[in-house]
Structures are given as structure tokens and as C-alpha cells.
Design a protein that fits this description.
The chain is α+β, with helices and mostly antiparallel strands. The chain is 40% helix and 20% strand. It is globular. The N and C termini lie far apart (60 Å). The structure holds adenosine-5'-triphosphate and magnesium ion (3 copies). It is found in: Cytoplasm.
């Protein structure tokens, strides 16, 4: 099955179960100050779950474009390194608003995966919520008993609150969830392990594809749980992962979702995909990032120096630097991927092909502007680390003839290999290197960045500005408007989350 057919089959299947097919919401969230980008299919239905809006249809299904580069869900660092976390991905979903519940949801996921898609039953295993006594949360025995009809018991794994209980925030709708995983290891390898050992979350060929959330409770301010009068189902399946499973590939990037992009990059760079791990990662990162960049721009958010616009600028600069350093693509290139992508998404998300020229032009301009300072910035970075390395060697009385990369030298110097925050700030201020790009470059050469010092430098330069206090509470951040606050800088590692920290004045 092609990716297009797989997507279509999902929607058709749920349509045959009386679901109304709805459109994806934009990836950029404009009317919710607590969420910057859509990070799950259910976002557009938040008000229904909160009881603040009525559902138009009791059952709906769609494919939602999502972005996970900030807040609770930040997968940016995995992208390109592993083969199944993307910045932008599609989440297939089906919902019941006070209509069907666990019995139908479980039966239909099983029917779809094994009968429509034909995934061998012995490759699937599921997880259910084990309960949490301390938090007063019961085990989901109902889901366990339902799964038992389809799956041998040693393939029903008990999961903890972190993986198998969903909540929107500290209060509000919440409930247990049941995940479905596929073990894509070769048959003989799979046969050698028993059910319980399948929970090898780190194995690159054992991947979670689908999450079924059962919104069963309402958590009150005092922490107690109330059973919701109308219970809901919210499911999300990673489309690119599903395609990988059905096309029998070892990586999402080997499917027809990503291959057109990868092939285009590989041709332009004159380097075969698969030739080398470093160039492969660079190609995967670019193929991934251009999707995020293009859809965010198409949905109305231009690259900028703050907020959502800065998130997208950072992702773009990250991609440009991968192309420049590892694929030797020194001229603007990323923008050429926009037409390739637009072609792929015709008839799925037409927003892109309809604005293809505009999106391409924006990306091109961004590339041109960053490429003006990129080379000098990289040179500055290289000469800084070289000088620091020499300094550390002589400080530690190490023979300068020894290569700095030597394992023994590294074992002695590793704790001292710190890039000053002031220098990181200079790279940002003068050469437009977002801090996470500097951190990434540092990490590649086993250096750390002094983030405390970086923040001090940043604060020194920041002018006073007024805004809001943000508290991270889960899938959404709660924003309390407070005029008596002053901006003092971005939150450490979460600069991308735009969770700004403010100090009372
Ligand atoms: P994982 O544990 O793999 O990070 P998750 O538990 O964070 O996934 P959910 O929030 O349950 O993911 O989202 C529902 C589905 O969306 C997942 O089962 C997975 O198939 C898919 N998914 C989640 N994050 C990504 C991502 N970054 N890229 C591609 N697909 C994803
Ligand atoms: Mg995750
Ligand atoms: Mg998970
Ligand atoms: Mg999950």
C-alpha cells in the first residue's frame, strides 16, 4: 500500500463506523495562548473535552498535522538520530464525544490493524494502565479484559502513569490510555523473546504506533477523581510509523513519505543515502525539518525573532547548518525541497501547494540571510574550541603533540571542556546562531556550553519588556496575565518552548 492509500484506508474505515471525516486544524495555534503549535489530534477538540463546547458530531476522524518541538512534547533532539520521531508528523485519529467507549475503540483498532492492514497478530502487543495507589488512580482492568479477547496475556503490558495515563493539566479531564506497539524485529529474533521482554522501549525496531486515550475522569482541585458523566475516546496513531510498518521498512525515512525528499537531497549533494551515518543523519534532518518549516509557514507563521516565529527560524537554521557542514551544500538549497513536498501533499493538505511559491520564497530569504554569517560563525566556533583545547592541554601539562581527540586526553579534560556562555551569546548576537545550534555543534565535539553564563549575557542585553507569567502544567501551559512582571530571559533548555520567565518587579 502507498502512504496515500494507507491514510485513505484509515479514514474510510472509521467512516464505515459512522465517523465524520473532518479537516486537520492548522499546525500553528493562533487562538490559544497556552499552546504554540498543534501537538496532537485532540487539540482542536479541547473545548469539547472541557465541556465548554458542544460536539458537532458524536464521532469524528481525521489526520492532523502536528509539531513536537516544544513544551511537554519536544522530540527535536531525536530527529534524524532515531528513525521514528519527527518534528512534523501526521496523527491519524478517531474520537468519540460521549458516544462509544473502550469496547468499541479497542475492537476497532484491532480490526483495522489486523484485518484491514493485515499486520500479523503476533507482532502486536499492547499496554494498559497499571494504576497508581499513591495518586488514587485505579488499574484499567476494563481495558485489560477487553484486550484479553484479542491478545495473549503475556502481550498485555502494564504501564505506569507516565506512559499510560493522560491528563490535560493538574485538573480537568483525564484517564487511562492503552498503547499499541509493533515489534518489527526479524521473526527469529522476535521468537527468541517472551511477551514481557517485548517492552524494550529502546529497541529501534519495537515501536509505539497508536495510543487510545479513554477520558474517564475529571480531576478536581483537591486531587480527587470524579467519573465524567460523558466519557470520551481520543486516539492518535503516528502515520509515518504506520506506513513504515506496512511497507516493511526499517526506518520511517525509507517509506514513500520521505524517500522523494531524501532522493532529491541525495542527488543534489551527490552523496548516496546509506553511504555514511553522518551524511544520512543530515539528509534525514533536512527531510524532516523542511516539513515542519513549510507547514508552519503555510499555516501563517513566518520566521521571526521571537515566539513561534523563532521556533521555526531555529529549525530552519539547524537544517541549513546540517546541509552546509555535512553535505557540503553551501548555496541556498532547502527552499528547493518545498515543491517536492507540496507535490506529495496535494489532495491531503492543499494549503502547501496553494502557497508553494510564497513558502519557497520565504525559505529562500531565510537561507540567504543565515548563509551570510554561517561560515564566519563556524570559523569563529572552530577557532574558539581549538584555542580552548590548546589552553586546556597546557594547563593540564599535556604534551601538545598529542591529538586533542585522543581518548586518554579526553578522559582527563572532559569536565573542563566548556564553551563560555558569553561566547555562545556572541555567536547568537553577531552570527545568528540560536543557542541550541551552538549546543548541538558543541555536543558533536563533546563540549558543553555554560548555559548559566549564557543566560546572564542574554539578560544583560535584554531590554525590559512586559508580558505574562507562564507555568508548565502538561500538554498546555497556563498563562496568567500579570502587568507587574518583567522579562528576564528564556527558560534554560526550554528556549524553544517560549516559556518565558518573568521576575516580579
Ligand atoms: P513516543 O513514546 O514514541 O515518543 P508518545 O507516547 O509521545 O510517542 P503520543 O503522545 O501517545 O506519543 O502520540 C500518539 C502517537 O503519535 C504515537 O503513538 C506515535 O505513533 C505518534 N508520535 C508521537 N510522537 C511522534 C513524533 N515525534 N514523530 C512521529 N510520530 C509520533
Ligand atoms: Mg513522545
Ligand atoms: Mg510513548
Ligand atoms: Mg503514547
Amino acid at each position: 500500500m502507498t502512504a496515500k492509500e494507507i491514510r485513505q484506508a484509515y479514514l474510510k474505515f472509521f467512516e464505515s463506523k459512522q465517523h465524520h471525516i473532518v479537516s486537520s486544524a492548522p499546525i500553528v495555534v493562533k487562538n490559544d495562548p497556552t499552546l504554540m503549535f498543534t501537538n496532537a489530534g485532540m487539540n482542536q477538540f479541547k473545548d469539547i473535552f472541557l465541556g465548554e463546547a458542544a460536539a458537532k458530531y458524536p464521532r469524528v476522524t481525521d489526520t492532523q498535522r502536528c509539531l513536537r518541538v516544544s513544551g511537554k512534547h519536544n522530540d527535536l533532539e531525536e530527529v534524524g538520530i532515531d528513525t521514528y520521531h519527527h518534528t512534523m508528523f501526521e496523527m491519524l485519529g478517531n474520537w468519540s464525544f460521549g458516544d462509544y467507549f473502550k469496547k468499541e475503540a479497542i475492537a476497532w483498532s484491532w480490526e483495522l490493524l489486523t484485518e484491514v492492514y493485515g499486520i500479523p497478530k503476533d507482532k502486536l502487543y499492547v499496554s494498559i494502565f497499571e494504576g497508581d495507589e499513591k495518586e488514587g488512580l485505579p488499574r484499567d482492568t476494563e481495558a485489560y479484559d477487553l484486550w484479553k479477547q484479542y491478545v495473549p496475556e503475556d502481550r498485555i503490558i502494564l504501564g505506569n502513569k507516565k506512559d499510560n495515563f493522560w491528563e490535560m493539566g493538574d485538573t480537568g479531564p483525564c484517564g487511562p490510555c492503552s498503547e499499541i506497539h509493533v515489534d518489527c524485529r526479524p521473526d527469529d529474533e522476535r521468537a527468541a523473546v517472551s511477551g514481557k521482554e517485548l517492552v524494550n522501549a529502546d529497541h529501534p525496531q519495537v515501536i509505539e504506533i497508536w495510543n487510545n486515550v479513554f477520558m474517564q475522569f475529571n480531576r478536581l482541585k483537591d486531587g480527587s477523581l470524579q467519573t465524567l458523566p460523558a466519557q470520551h475516546v481520543d486516539t492518535g496513531m503516528g502515520f509515518e510509523r504506520l506506513v513504515r510498518v506496512l511497507q516493511n521498512k526499517a526506518s520511517n525515512y525509507d517509506t514513500d513519505v520521505f524517500q522523494p525528499l531524501i532522493q532529491f537531497i541525495s542527488q543534489k549533494a551527490g552523496i548516496a543515502y546509506g553511504a555514511d551515518e553522518k551524511t544520512d543523519i543530515a539528509m534525514r534532518v533536512m527531510a524532516d525539518h523542511i516539513r515542519a518549516i513549510s507547514f508552519v509557514i503555510a499555516d501563517g507563521q513566518l520566521p521571526a525573532n521571537n515566539k513561534a516565529g523563532y521556533v521555526i527560524r531555529r529549525i530552519l537554521r539547524r537544517a541549513v547548518r546540517y546541509a552546509y557542514t555535512f553535505l557540503d551544500l553551501k548555496d541556498p538549497f532547502l527552499n528547493q525541497l518545498v515543491p517536492v513536498l507540496a507535490e506529495q501533499f496535494k489532495g491531503v493538505f492543499d494549503e502547501l501547494s496553494l502557497q508553494q511559491d510564497f513558502v519557497q520564497k520565504v525559505v529562500l530569504e531565510e537561507e540567504v540571510s543565515f548563509l551570510r554569517t554561517l561560515a564566519t560563525g563556524i570559523q569563529r566556533f572552530e577557532s574558539y574550541t581549538k584555542k580552548q583545547a590548546e589552553f586546556l592541554m597546557s594547563e593540564n601539562a599535556i604534551d601538545l603533540e598529542k591529538p586533542f581527540e585522543d581518548a586518554w586526553v579526553y578522559s582527563i579534560l572532559k569536565d573542563q571542556m566548556v564553551i563560555s556562555g558569553e561566547f555562545a551569546f556572541e555567536l547568537q548576537d553577531t552570527y545568528g546562531f540560536p543557542i541550541d545550534l551552538t549546543e548541538l555543534m558543541a555536543r558533536e565535539q563533546k563540549w558543553n556550553v555554560d548555559m548559566d553564563e549564557y543566560h546572564i549575557s542574554l539578560q544583560k542585553q535584554k531590554s525590559r519588556s512586559r508580558a505574562a507569567t507562564a507555568v508548565d502544567t502538561g500538554d498546555w501551559i497556563t498563562v496568567h496575565p500579570d502587568p507587574e512582571t518583567e522579562f528576564v530571559g528564556y527558560d534554560d533548555l526550554e528556549i524553544e518552548t517560549k516559556i518565558l520567565k518573568y521576575r516580579q518587579v
